[in-house]
Design a protein that fits this description.
The protein is of the alpha+beta class. It has helices at 4-18, 41-45, 125-128, 141-148, 155-159, 170-180, 193-214; strands at residues 23-28, 52-56, 59-63, 67-72, 78-83, 92-98, 102-107, 114-119, 253-257, 260-264. The relative contact order is 0.15. The protein binds a DNA duplex (16 and 16 nucleotides) through residues 1-3, 6, 32, 34, 58, 72-77, 91, 108-114, 126, 150-153, 157, 162, 169-172, 238, 258-261.
DNA sequence: CGCTGACCCTGACGGC
DNA sequence: TGCCGTCAGGGTCAGC
């Protein structure tokens, strides 16, 4: 489910209801996530006040004066606010009850996500080796160009590598490469500076658009179904294998790169 | 260090 | 209707 736009949408949705709120209770129904949910989590969290909800890459960071709750939604996770009376459904693994009567509920069928605690001042190894945020000023064509010199792997794997840049998932990697006219299997080390300028701005563009579309669901986030609005967005290549390219009409092809499906147009992407 | 492939887990979907 | 293989938007890790 979540690419960077949905994680950001989630952050914007839950943050106004969490900030300034004291945690009154924590219930962990299933601790078997990507890494086990710490047994001490309830004891550590109860009584703390969420000062802010931040995002780094696809991690959500709930700051308190004692430390930080670090949440990742994995592939199938979601976080939403429900009434404390609402009974949990299957795969609702964690409840964090707040003073305002709401419950922050973590749901994750595949359990690829995680929910961890960081002591104040502790830098988690997961956050240590991350590349720049794609929407930051430090991320641009020049950066990608310099990073890629000497590398032989496909450009698509390169831009999905969190050590290079965070938050570019499979959907938007496909879309950005189409918009920049670059074949996903081209060696990243052999792409020109000018094309990287275009690619960097297309990545920013596609993520920005998706975030603003995801924002349409914010209104009914509380008690809503949490379904991302950007699903409705017209994707140009992702999920369109065998269909005509919207730019030239050529049939879109699929290739597998790094275990993930890549859809592209042989005419528009070189 | 860079790159590849296996793996973590459940659910949805298409073919037979 | 039901069974089975395949695939899914995340990321880590071992091995070469």
């Amino acid at each position: 489910m979540p690419e960077l736009p949905e994680v950001e949408t989630t952050r914007r949705g839950v943050s106004p209801h969490c900030e300034g709120q004291r945690v009154t209770a924590v219930e962990v129904r299933d601790h078997r996530l990507r890494w086990p949910v710490p047994d001490q989590l309830p004891a550590l969290l109860v009584g703390q006040v969420f000062q802010s909800v931040e995002r780094r890459a696809k991690y959500l960071l709930f700051r308190t004066s004692a430390g930080t709750l670090l949440v990742h939604l994995g592939m199938s996770g979601s976080l939403r606010l429900v009434s404390q009376e609402e009974p949990p459904r299957r795969h609702d693994h964690i409840d964090i009850l707040l003073k305002n009567g709401l419950c922050l509920r973590y749901h994750d069928p595949r359990r690829f996500g995680c929910c961890l605690w960081l002591e104040k001042g502790e830098l988690h190894p997961l956050l240590g080796k991350l590349g720049p945020e794609p929407l930051s000023a430090g991320f641009d064509g020049d950066y990608l160009y310099r990073c890629s010199r000497g590398r032989k792997g496909p450009i698509k794997n390169f831009i999905m590598d969190a050590k290079v840049v965070v938050g570019v998932g499979n959907i938007y990697a496909n879309e950005a490469l189409f918009l920049a006219g670059i074949r996903p299997d081209r060696a990243s080390g052999r792409i020109s500076r000018a094309r990287y300028d275009d690619l960097a701005s297309q990545i920013k563009q596609v993520l920005t658009t998706a975030i603003s579309n995801g924002g349409t669901t914010l209104r009914d986030f509380v008690g809503g179904d949490g379904k991302p609005g950007y699903f409705a967005q017209k994707l140009l290549v992702y999920g369109r294998k065998g269909e005509p390219c919207k730019q030239c009409g050529h049939t879109l092809r699929e290739a597998r790169l790094g275990q993930r499906s890549s859809v592209y147009c042989v005419t528009c992407q070189r």
